Amino acid sequence: MTTGKFNPAPTTGDxxxxxxxxxxxLPGGSLAVSLGDEVIPVxxxxxxxxxxxxxxxxxxRDWHPPEHCSFKAQGGPWPPHCVADTxxxxxxxxxxxxxxxxxxxxGTARRKDAxxxxxxxxxxxxxxxxxITRVFVGGLATDYCVLNTVRDALSGGLRxxxxxxxxxxxxxxxxDGARAEQEMKRLGALSVEFPAVSAH
Length: 200
Ligand code: VGL
Ligand code: ZN
Hints:
Elements: E1 14-19, H1 39-52, E2 57-62, E3 103-106, H2 123-129, E4 134-140, H3 142-155, E5 159-168, H4 176-186, E6 190-192, H5 194-198
Parallel strand pairs: 1-2, 1-4, 2-3, 4-5, 5-6
Helix pairs in contact: 3-4
This protein binds pyrazine-2-carboxylic acid (VGL) and zinc ion.
Residues 20, 62, 70, 78, 140-141, 144-145 line the site of pyrazine-2-carboxylic acid.
């Protein structure tokens, strides 16, 4: 359901998924997303909101081995980024992470890339265990990991609220971010901005 009297106020059965807010995707990082740092204060508000209501928060992270297949030297499209246990792979120090927040690592196998937080991880199982039926998704980047995470959430039967002001795109091509958002909405995601949620 994407329109009508859909109430996006976070409640029991909802979880927040914060996608890849890691130093390498932020200004100064090896695969910096333009204005990527602007998502942090918005995400911090969502984290506070969910955590304050006792609702689960999950963090995903890109967590690649040093010679990952997505890196240019291995024939992939990207500069080296988010190599496990390096400073570039760490979450931004500005992200307010409650103690004990679960972290989902993806793209950990050398020969396989994974843009979705569900791919090759136990995220689906973890959400099921908690009785989650709807996920709120924001982070980096709109046109890769957010898009693919949202796609998998929807095809796994979850409802999705896309936090549009908590996302920024790589935009390899000019309109990639805009196209990704359209695609997520077409697939059934509800796209909201923060006040739409906090007003309830
Ligand atoms: C991502 C490009 C390469 C992302 C990850 O997190 O969106 N983008 N690896
Ligand atoms: Zn990556």
